[in-house]
Amino acid sequence: MKTRALLLIVIFHLTTWLVAQNQVIIPDTLSGTEFNLNLQNGTFVFYAGQPTNTMGVNGNILGPTLLMNMGNFVDITVNNNLGETTTIHWHGMHVSASNDGGPHTTIASGTSWNPKFTVMDKAGTYWYHPHLHEKTNEHVSKGIAGFIIVRDSEEAGLELPRSYGVDDFPLVIQTKDFDADNQIVAPSNSDDVVMVNATINPQLDVPAQVVRLRLLNGSSMRVFNIGLSGNSSFYQIGTDGGLLAEPVSITRLQMSPGERAELLIDFSGMEGQSIQLMSYASEFQNGLYGATYPGMMSMMTLNGYNPNPLNGSNFNIINFQVVSQTENPVTTIPSTLVEVNPIPESEANLTRNLTFTPETMGPDQLNGNFLINGSSFKMDVINYSIPLNNTEIWSIFNQSGIAHPFHIHDVQFFILDRNGNPPPASEQGRKDVIIIKPQETVRFITKFEDFANDSVPYMAHCHMLVHEDDGMMLQFEVVDETTQVRNTDWDNDDFYIYPNPISSNNQTLIISQKNNSLKKVEIFDANGRIQITLNTFIEQEKINVELNGMRKGIYFLKLYGTDSIHIKKLIIF
After folding, report:
1. 343 touches 447 (CB < 8 A)
2. CA 41, CA 83: separation in Å to the nearest integer?
3. Structure confidence at residue 485 (pLDDT)
């Protein structure tokens, strides 16, 4: 087995350099305030012979880049012609939950979805992709994914490359597995084919000047260790949620699934040369999908993972062929970028603690499912009810044997620390995905503002799409406590909760109602854990809720009526 693996690696490195290069596809663009997206089946020729069945947006594979301006109100029509249900999620964008495109907002085959929202995000690189529960990986793997580029006045005032497809290039990096008939296999841990913008062995002609790359790790599982051939330096200028305060000079950038990064590379004086964008996976420690061993210990195996010449080996992602300069080239790297204002830790209202665990412990855990706080995702369970304008710290401990990229919808966050240590400069901007390694604790801070009282929850999940599909996901709702009402115009006099605040010595809470519409009561602690559930109240004008020795603190009551749901804060002192 070792001899075969070594032979595969040698063959892989030879073919990386000997196979003819293909000009990378640059996605078309759509701009303005109205966008029409058609989800469709198609075919695409990755290899000579039998075409591959694919899915795409306005084409056979991938989708157009959507160019948006901060502050614009956009009207999007998504037409589903796939012959099956799907969704479209605007990854990284700050929109209401009903516009977010999570697993609850399904688009049946032959129907359309029409989200409308104001672009509130800063200039940056975002993306869109399906998010149907248990089908996300298949739909993304077959080709549904596209960039969103947001522009704003602050970014426009900087001397940066921004001519799309000329000196500003969107590059989605993916790995896939193909069967003997050239068909995409999903799910699969045998993803040994690297592609950029659906192009295998890709080449990009870049001008001999400063060039901007917008990188997206669109893989299902694989982590990349980005670097240039010859260990040349490059500059990171942006993270998931926009530009950094200043360019960061680096030679390596780790990117996990779902993460984006904006880079500047100075190709000045290099006309006629070839430079490769690499993944230096040989430098990975165990416990990353992409390392020699995907688990933190070599005894932890993953079905189909080895032998694979990509795992634990350095490989070429794309070849840059340097050509002549454009007119009015950018030739310098700016010293500063935009103002970035991290949220002070002192402003946090509370800390939520999340723990990642395997469903089954032991050396075979990587082949099973993974849990968040001991639970798998359930469509009808709201894990957290978060008050509008809450500033929160989420502290996440990875107790499993493999690293997980964690993504949260609705908000961008700032990383506070990794195992108590400040994040590197490349992680000090706005983020919506963060990789958490085995036995590592990562804390981030964020604020839940602008959107509340929606009929649809937001998601937070592992962005390894196989793990997400298998239930490594939770959902939360943001509630406006000043109104106490969700999806309803209930009169506040329809029910009373008293005493509130309630003494810890008085353990009976009374709910009084007028129209006998109350069906269910749930009480959550500040971390979203259910403490009490009561069902069915038949003709009861007053309901006594025994608090059963609950500790002092802030809790939330969720009152289910016939047609509506109320959220009410409860204080025990």
Report:
1. yes
2. 8
3. 40
